[in-house]
Design brief:
Layout lengths: L27 E5 L14 E4 L2 H7 L5 H10 L8 E5 L6 H10 L6 E4 L1 H4 L2 H13 L3 E6 L13 H8 L4 E5 L6 H10 L27 H10 L2 E8 L2 E8 L11 H23 L9 H20 L6 E4 L6 E4 L2 E3 L11 H5 L8 E3 L16
Parallel strand pairs: 1-3, 1-4, 4-5, 5-6, 6-7
Antiparallel strand pairs: 2-3, 7-8, 9-10, 11-12
Helix pairs in contact: 2-7, 3-5, 5-6, 9-10
């Protein structure tokens, strides 16, 4: 027997873990009333995934709200792949139903409820607050006529803007029940890993929704209050039959739907990138400039990804240190690797890194155009 080389060379294999993956921002869920399903095997407090409205029709009557929501969701272009329905527990409040799903780790991002719940303004506002706190987006539709009356300040849109929930938008429509859910379905197909993939809600088409033809007074009221609406656009006898207008959230900060949606995705991607940079090192991430640089590089990779997908873009800004106007590609990382040499003894003992300071500039979206023609 020959002398084994392993007695001379001792090799330890260090395996890097897979880490965490980014969230699925395409997941939409309808919270159905406990007695709305025709399938007795569908247990309260559970959910099912569906790939089409026809599949939903197997478990719910075609006159039901869940089926109407499914028609809206799967009518979006491009078509979403799946939709979830959670069957509420009898006796639970709407907010309790949402929290039950969250506590059971049933993942969803966009959500809606049946009209029996949405007809109560207090429940709608409670759901908006609970969803916002949990990082969920309420794609709400109202049929209240008072939304279109400028003299009324007690309609649900006015109340929602007073509350100031970021992750909520309200589509005003006279008859359609789930126009907002179809608009959410359009956003659900955004792939943040793809180039030029981020979108605005403005001017999107909703194939399953009837475009309205309203008075100037109604349009002005909805724009002033912040309601989203789906309307015909006309000039010179030519009609574009259906566009989303005023695609804002009820946020106190005056944000559009894509502002909130894209920032949620950016935050999630950044969290995952930094977590994986910390945990996928087989040995350890050293508390040195080299270790700090790994974290800075991970943050920069996300900045580049969100330039590529269109969320971040070029901007002129004033440099804090020089006071000069500088052109940014879309983000600036202000932290240097050497900053870790200056952290306090307490921060070092707590195994902390130097805080990463990052400035991001949204690419935004053009919604209107002004032109001045000088006639010679």
């Amino acid at each position: 027997m020959a002398y084994p080389a392993e007695s001379i060379i001792n090799i330890d294999t260090l395996i890097s873990s897979a880490g965490l993956g980014t969230a699925n921002f395409g997941a939409g869920m309808i919270f159905a009333d406990f007695d709305s399903s025709s399938d007795v095997a569908f247990v309260e407090g559970s959910y099912r995934d569906y790939g089409s409205a026809a599949q939903v029709a197997v478990d719910f009557d075609i006159a039901s709200d869940p089926y109407a929501a499914a028609l809206a969701w799967f009518s979006a272009v491009p078509k979403p792949k799946t939709m979830r329905i959670y069957l509420r527990i009898e006796g639970d409040t709407p907010a309790e139903s949402m929290n039950d799903a969250i506590n059971k780790r049933i993942w969803f991002f966009w959500y809606e409820f049946e009209t029996s719940i949405r007809s109560v303004d207090a429940d709608v506002l409670d759901l908006a607050a609970a969803g916002d706190a949990a990082g969920k987006f309420f794609a709400y539709t109202t049929n209240q006529a008072t939304v279109r009356d400028p003299a009324v300040t007690t309609d649900i849109v006015s109340k929602a803007f007073t509350q100031g929930t970021r992750r909520m938008f309200v589509v005003s429509h006279a008859t359609e029940l789930y126009a907002g859910f179809e608009l959410a379905a359009v956003f659900s197909r955004v792939n943040f890993n793809a180039t030029n993939s981020t979108i605005t809600g403005e001017y999107k088409k909703l194939p399953n929704i009837d475009a309205e033809d309203l008075t100037e007074n109604a349009y002005n009221a909805m724009k002033a209050k912040g309601a989203v609406f789906y309307t015909k656009v006309e000039t010179g006898g030519s009609v574009d039959n259906g566009r989303i207008i005023n695609s804002k959230t009820t946020s106190t900060f005056g944000e559009f739907i894509d502002d909130v949606f894209n920032l949620d995705a950016f935050t999630n991607f950044m969290t995952i990138a930094l977590y994986n940079a910390l945990t996928k090192v087989p040995t350890k991430l050293r508390q040195t400039p080299a270790g700090q640089q790994i974290l800075i590089d991970a943050a920069a990779q996300i900045g580049e990804k969100f330039i590529d997908n269109g969320y971040l873009g070029e901007r002129l800004y004033l440099d804090d240190q020089t006071g000069e106007e500088v052109l940014s590609r879309g983000y600036e990382i202000l932290t240097k690797a050497e900053d870790i040499l200056q952290i306090s003894d307490a921060e070092r003992a707590a195994r902390g890194a130097a805080p990463i300071r990052m400035r991001i500039f949204r690419a935004g979206a053009i919604h209107t155009v002004d032109l001045t023609a000088n006639v010679e």
